[in-house]
Specification:
The structure holds two protein chains of two kinds. The longest helix of chain A has 29 residues, at 4-32. Chain A has eleven helices and four strands; from the N terminus they run ααααβββααααβααα. In chain A, the strands form two sheets. Chain A has a two-stranded antiparallel sheet with strand order 1-4. A two-stranded antiparallel sheet of chain A has the order 2-3. Chain A has a single domain, classed as ABC transporter involved in vitamin B12 uptake, BtuC, CATH 1.10.3470. By secondary structure, chain A is mostly helical. In chain A, strand 2 and strand 3 (142-144) form a beta hairpin. By secondary structure, chain B is α/β, with parallel strands linked by helices. Chain B is built from ten helices and ten strands. Chain B has helices at 43-50, 73-76, 96-103, 110-123, 125-129, 140-152, 170-185, 197-202, 221-226, 228-234, and strands spanning 3-14, 17-28, 32-36, 58-63, 66-67, 81-84, 158-162, 189-194, 206-211, 214-220. In chain B, the strands form two sheets. In chain B, strands 6-7-8-3-9-10 form a six-stranded mixed β-sheet, with helices on both faces. In chain B, strands 2-1-4-5 form a four-stranded antiparallel β-sheet, covered by helices on one side. In chain B, helix 4 (110-123) runs antiparallel to helix 6 (140-152). The longest helix of chain B is centred in the C-terminal third of the chain and has 16 residues, at 170-185. The chains are: A mainly alpha, B alpha/beta. The A-B interface holds A 170, 173-174, 176-177, 180-181, 183-192, 304-309 and B 51-53, 73-78, 82-83, 85, 89, 91-94, 98, 101-103, 105-106, 134, 136-140, 143, 150, 154, 167.
Chain lengths: 309, 238
């Protein structure tokens, strides 16, 4: 167990990535009770948006200058895609049976993957994404990749900003009201259509931050990257209690830690020697999802104040 | 008497089922007007249409000189029409104070809003004592007070109250009815929907009896209270 601090650090960093993506699932679900299964592809297009900005810059541009521009481009592409999806794919189905928008989301997910696959230059194989150059940092026995510094800074900043927005601003309070009771929110004068667009946009902006973090970590983006990342983040959102933004971050961190610890240690448990190592890491994430659904279906923070009659 | 709200031949349908079948009524400035009727008579549907949550299939709604039938729900409150919905519908995971402030969502006069929050606490002291408590933890009667207080926060010209006595203890109901009298005395025009016909009619200037989507009887509150058929149908007398 001498490498426990390292495993914990890996889990936290991975968890922050899941949490950023999970926010998008949870915000949209909290407002319109839709599982936006195209959200993984919102991450993916953000990654390609950032890559496009990087490629457009003159060669030799320092990453410290390029990174903010990549981030802006990624956020722009993700947000526009998500807002267009809401307007043209989901809004017409607002009053349709629940299954219709769900199937639309899956269709949209395939559509976005295929659009990038077919039309983005050389997207048939993974495209190289820049990494932050330099040696890893060492803190005692823990090593942190330089590229992960972006995530370590960005994830808490994003969460703080979102917490402030939701609780302290007028639009944030309108968002809370809409998620708790949309018809009554309208009676207060809240334009709930605008709030729904805002929820999609914020989720997409976080997705783009996650996409840049993912690209920096793995050194590549590809048209399928949203699938597994989206599924894991969805797991994180359910784990934390879907609809709860702090739950999404907590669920992400819990999932990241579980994945990292299971990968590192499970083969030392009696009778589990076959299940160790990275090949099984995705299995543990979904085993955790099944356990949560069995034991605590409302998720970690899904408990609600009783609505007494 | 000037009419604040005029409804003419209003029809509302859920799909193919018509719930409101061509009703006309008037709410006069400064008065309490009541719609009474049994479950399914179309009273709640009527109020939800007035506040824009449902779209009429036909008819005209004129409020303060303006046609409402095409105004989206979120713009209605800014015209001076506030709706305390059936079942109260407070925001359960927000505090009492946050609920009240949402009632003033479109206002920007901070000082006036703060004064009105205090006025709501004056009207319902229990809300003031629990201002930082989540609204979902309140009792039914307290939630009703909060729903009324929240509707008043928009400084409405017309306050619509849907079943404010539903599920309340007799004592709490008296308190709510007394508040309606108090609000009227303060100049607020009120459109009240009630199943408790006795209590509602005794404080109403004007009453309308609805049955299966139609208005079947009209009169002053006192007239209806003494009407033979109303007494039989709604006041439980043989």
């Amino acid at each position: 167990m001498h490498d426990l601090p390292q495993q914990l650090a890996n889990g936290l960093i991975l968890g922050a990535l899941y949490g950023l993506v999970a926010i998008g699932y949870t915000m949209v679900y909290g407002i319109v009770q839709l599982i936006n299964f195209a959200h993984g592809e919102i991450v993916m297009v953000g990654g390609f948006g950032a890559l496009t900005a990087y490629l457009a810059l003159p060669g030799g541009t320092t990453l410290w200058l390029a990174l903010p521009l990549m981030l802006i481009a990624g956020i722009l592409v993700s947000t526009l895609t998500a807002v267009a999806a809401e307007r043209f794919a989901y809004r017409p189905l607002r009053n349709a049976p629940r299954l219709a928008p769900l199937i639309t989301a899956i269709g949209l997910s395939i559509l976005l993957q295929q659009l990038v696959f077919s039309f983005y230059p050389d997207a048939k194989k993974a495209r190289v994404f820049p990494k932050i150059p330099g040696d890893p940092f060492s803190l005692g026995s823990v090593t942190i990749q330089r590229s992960d510094i972006f995530l370590i800074i960005a994830a808490p900043l994003c969460m703080l900003a979102l917490g402030w927005f939701v609780t302290r601003t007028r639009s944030g309070r309108a968002m809370q009201a809409t998620s708790q009771d949309p018809d009554t929110a309208k009676l207060m004068g809240i334009d709930t259509d605008r709030i729904i667009v805002m929820a999609f946009a914020i989720g997409a902006a976080f997705a783009a931050v996650a996409a840049v973090a993912y690209g920096l970590r793995s050194g590549q983006v590809d048209f399928r990257m949203g699938f597994l990342l989206g599924l894991k983040a969805f797991t994180a959102a359910v784990l934390g209690g879907i609809g709860n933004i702090y739950g999404a971050m907590l669920g992400g961190v819990a999932l990241g830690l579980a994945e990292s610890l299971a990968t590192g240690y499970i083969q030392h448990l009696p009778g589990m020697s076959l299940f160790g190592g990275g090949a099984w890491k995705d299995v543990w994430a979904f085993v955790l999802l099944i356990l949560v659904l069995l034991v605590r279906p409302q998720g970690l923070l899904g408990e609600r104040v009783a609505d007494r009659a | 008497m000037t009419a604040l709200l005029e409804v003419e031949d209003l029809r509302v349908a859920y799909g193919k089922i018509e719930a409101v079948k061509g009703i006309s009524f008037t709410v006069n400035q400064g008065e309490v007007t009541t719609l009474i009727g049994t479950n399914g008579a179309g009273k709640t549907t009527t109020l939800r249409t007035l506040s824009g949550l449902l779209k009429p299939t036909a008819g005209r709604i004129t409020f303060d000189g303006q046609d409402l039938s095409t105004v989206p729900a979120h713009k209605i409150v800014s015209l001076g029409l506030a709706h305390s919905p059936e079942g109260r519908h407070i925001f359960p995971r927000m505090t009492i104070e946050e609920n009240l402030l949402l009632g003033a969502f479109l206002r920007s006069d901070a000082a006036g809003i703060a004064a009105d929050v205090e006025r709501a606490y004056g009207l319902f002291p229990i809300l003031g004592e629990r201002r930082k408590q989540a609204a979902g933890t309140l009792s039914g009667g307290e939630q009703q007070m909060l729903a009324m207080g929240r509707a008043l926060m928009s400084q409405p010209k017309l306050l619509m109250l849907d079943e404010p006595s539903m599920g309340l203890s007799p004592l709490m109901m008296q308190k709510i009815m007394a508040t309606i009298v108090e609000l009227k005395a303060g100049g607020t025009t009120i459109l009240l929907v009630e199943q408790n016909a006795q209590a509602a009619l005794s404080l109403s200037d004007q009453g309308y009896v609805m049955e299966t989507g139609r208005i079947v009887l009209t009169g002053t509150g006192a007239d209806l209270l003494h009407d033979e058929s109303v007494r039989k149908a709604y006041l439980g007398e043989d």
